[in-house]
Amino acid sequence: MTASTPAPSSQTALPDWAAQSEPVEGVRIDVAFIVEPTFYYGPPSNIAAAQWEQLREPLYQPAIPGAAQGFVLSADCIGHEGELCRHYRDLLTKAARHGKDPADGPHFWNRPVVHAPGRFLLSFPWHDRFSEGRAFIESLATGTPGEVFSDYEQGWFFDLRLHDGTLYLRDDDPDEGTTFHNLRFAYKPVRAQVETVLARVERLIARLAGELGRDYWTGGTD
Prior knowledge:
The protein is built from five helices and twelve strands. By secondary structure, the chain is an alpha+beta fold. A hairpin with a 2-residue loop joins strand 7 and strand 8 (119-123). Helix 2 packs across helix 5 and helix 3 runs antiparallel to helix 5.
């Protein structure tokens, strides 16, 4: 993965795509925690389709908005931290039962998200730990005109620019020439969320790590 938070000398001119950007109101930033519905305990490779479907146990699903869609936002976990702990504790129990490493697979993944009321705008498909999400969220605090953050991976390119108090966001598939989002929204309301989001996610991870005895969410799995 190639990600960058540019130096103050970055070019401030807007790219051509910004002229076609769609305005969005009420944009929020957050970190989403993946909630898997089942635990797969079969072989890690050479898997038949039937094995992939059958060698699974259901996991406790936390009573938190979004869980049924496969993720929960940190903002929605306030007051429901115990529910998320119960989900992960069930995962650890079932992994131990089958002699599996619970850190294998996507169970502890989390990623930054940008969303608006009634509308999920985008997540970061190649991010899976808070160390990566933190880098994106912290980049929003600088207020330096020009490129705020960019990231490139196979099938995904993300570009975020700040110009005259407005953030311009685009993510696309450069290999296929497909644009997923081309948006613009006010910078100040997003900047005002940075410290709150970081502190909230840190508290949540600290609570989870305290309950489970290990921080699976911030960095790697070593």
